[in-house]
Amino acid sequence: MTGALAGWLQILALVAALALSYRPLGDHLAHTLTTARHLRAERLVYRLGGVDGDADQGWPAYLRGVLAFSAVSVLFLYGFLRLQNHLLLSLGRQPMPADQAFNTAASFATNTNWQSYSGESTLGHLVQMAGLAVQNFVSAAVGIAVVAALIRGFTRERTDQVGNFWVDLTRIVVRVLLPIAFVFAIVLVAGGVIQNFHGVESIRTVVGGHQNLIGGPVASQEAIKELGTNGGGFYNANSAHPFENPNPFTNWLEIYLLLVISFSLPRTFGRMVGDHRQGYAIVTVMAVIWAASVAVVTVNELHSVSSRAGHAAGGMLEGKEQRFGIWASALFAAPTTLTSTGAVNSAHDSYTPFGGGMTIFNMMLGEIAPGGTGSGLYGILILAIIAVFVAGLMVGRTPEYLGKKLGAREMKFASLYILTTPAIVLVGAGLAMALPGQRAAMLNHGPHGFSEVLYAFTSAANNNGSAFAGLGANTAWYNTALGLVMLLGRYLPMVFVLALAGSLARQQPVPVTAGTLPTHRPQFVGLLTGVVLIVVGLTYFPALSLGPLAEGLQ
Amino acid sequence: MPGPLPRTVRHHLSALRMLLVFTAVTGILYPLAVTGVAQLALPDQADGSRIERHGRTVGSSLIGQRVGPDPKWFRPRPSAGGYDPLASGASNLGPNNPDLVKAVEQRRAAVAGYDKVAPEDVPVDAVTASGSGLDPHISPTYAYQQVGRVAKARGLKPATVRRLVAEHVQGRVLGFLGEKRVNVVELNAALAGDALSRRVRGGGGSGRARPRAAPRG
């Protein structure tokens, strides 16, 4: 079989697996978020946690729950990292410095998983599994909870109630994330991912040299790292590391896992609003952008476009593993940056200018194709609201989406959502470039160095977490700045989404008339795709032209 | 007697209690359960697909090893971290970084001289560092290119070494996932002699027969 045919089959098998999961997983999520029945285990969690599982909350109370839970998560994890030397299984590792611990705590609580540390040389096993991996579960669940509240804004009428945050959080962990992660963790072990509590072990190698092997509970963390679109690697090399991703099958599985929830959530949306066609329209937009992105990255890497090093070597294999090659590396790089996962199975910094530039662009889209768990769907629903509004302006009538009027208040929240992330990215990157000390953190010079800085702020603000890893980001300045960017990039948009949810839930639905824009037809799919590209393109074009575009056209 | 706590404090205490419950379930019970099943059902994989000799671990078949200048071993790809599992990672040099271009050219010249082949025939994996710095694999082309040198250094017939390489070529998983490859650690372990006993894993799913005993000169 030729490489190209194998590459295509790899992509088609992935698409088929995701398509087969769309209905069952989407329906399961919808049932989880709407059923009135609590499981016994869930009642136990509510009792132990001291929360009321039966009272619905208005949007301010729901938001207070999100923020309180996230705040204690950051503080708890910060303490954990600072005190890890006193705990079991610390492997003799020292406490993490204050600025790095803040960065890491903010990073994992916000589902970003930016890592300015190197796992194998910094962290003990206990803090990885009971500190970081816990956030992998709950931060993913928080994202889904927030989009559930937004969907209820569309489905409920004349009420203040958008759901119960503690119930949503608990059910998503208990009924969705835990069982799926458990099954796939075992499958990953069968594929060769390690799962033990060994420390560092000095061995004499085959040829008589020395090597330090290191163990860890990796598979349990790997499964939820992908499934929850978290992306923080157990080891520094992340999913390029053979203990995290030992062969092409585990690689394919990890790509599937990091996409499957976000690609199935439109089904949940369609089911909850009572019209599956609405879900199909949204997932089509996601899929079109996803496919185009995979194509751009793959083509550029295959042909070493605009890369002198690639032409000198005879291919773009610098920073890529032999067992994956170009196709399976590009097929990982595009989805991981389109989903807010940020796990990497190859070094994006060494990608071609346009291939690597595409991974930055993917994040700039706002993580919506299909995006992070939950955050991807609420991101694209905000853009759908913008699209309906734009269409409304064209014909001069008040826009409505799924029977809810989009008035001044709703559009204010949607606009604030759209403006928040770019403002954080561009101010942050601009600041870093203006300060000589921070500029010096670039490994590469010229436009590529700027791309490293732009990548870092784009990744942090969009809660992706991958990096052009040449940037020496473990400094007090970058740890603090990027930590703040991650917090603002996660929670400000959530405030606007929940406020919007409350505002929609209060409305009485308007009847569909001849003038209503249908939001399930190809016309709307095209309109929404266009809005996504224009909004992002206009916002970021100047920054992109200074980085990847300048480098590629040199 | 102190009065009831302010609402904000109660709210955050409740959030903390929920976090502690999730920590117990997803941070302790879940990884322990996975470890239990993995260690019972799949102990070889769970422990890192070790290669053992005389009861001593000489490596993991998943983690590449440094080989040094000795011509009698197959060489792995260049590594940004010197095949140290405590320093995994890539070079992160950009696609037009002059240092990377220079490094590639130097590697090409060095490999060509070492394996006595034309510089333009040196395959791409021999001149590029991997993403993990621990890549245990090389392309079949690079493995076959090293046969002559290894055979000569060991006083073996090239055909014997070539056959050993052929036995170690792994195809794409299920015929279409990933790339063809040769595991250098396993290949060198096989070369190290038939005293070498293996206690290892499936892992790749490539369905390839593994040589139990390696030919010896």
Walk me through what this model shows.
The complex is a heterodimer of chains A (554) and B (217). Chain A has helices at 3-34, 40-49, 59-82, 98-109, 119-122, 125-155, 165-191, 218-227, 248-272, 276-302, 308-313, 325-338, 353-364, 375-395, 408-434, 436-439, 446-461, 476-506, 522-546, 548-553; strands at 57-58, 161-163, 200-204, 210-214, 400-401, 404-405. Chain A is mainly alpha-helical and 554 residues long. Chain A has one domain (3-553). In chain A, a hairpin with a 5-residue loop joins strand 3 and strand 4. In chain A, helix 6 packs parallel to helix 8. The two termini of chain A are 36 Å apart. Chain B has 2 domains: 8-41; 48-191, no CATH class. Chain B is 41% helix and 7% strand. Chain B has a 3-stranded antiparallel sheet. In chain B, helix 5 (147-154) crosses helix 6. Chain B starts with 6 loop residues before the first helix and ends in a 26-residue tail after the last helix. The interface between A and B is large, with 123 and 101 residues.
Short description:
The complex is a heterodimer of chains A (554) and B (217). Chain A has 20 helices and six strands. Chain A is mainly alpha-helical and 554 residues long.
Number of strands of chain A: 6
What kind of sheet is the major sheet of chain A? 2 strands, antiparallel
User: What count of domains describes the coordinates of chain A?
Assistant: 1
Mean pLDDT of chain A: 97
Cα(first) to Cα(last) distance of chain A is 36 Å
Specify the structural class of chain A: mainly alpha
Subcellular location (chain A): Cell membrane
Keywords (chain A): Cell membrane, Ion transport, Membrane, Potassium, Potassium transport, Transmembrane, Transmembrane helix, Transport
Family (chain A): Belongs to the KdpA family.
Subunit structure (chain A): The system is composed of three essential subunits: KdpA, KdpB and KdpC.
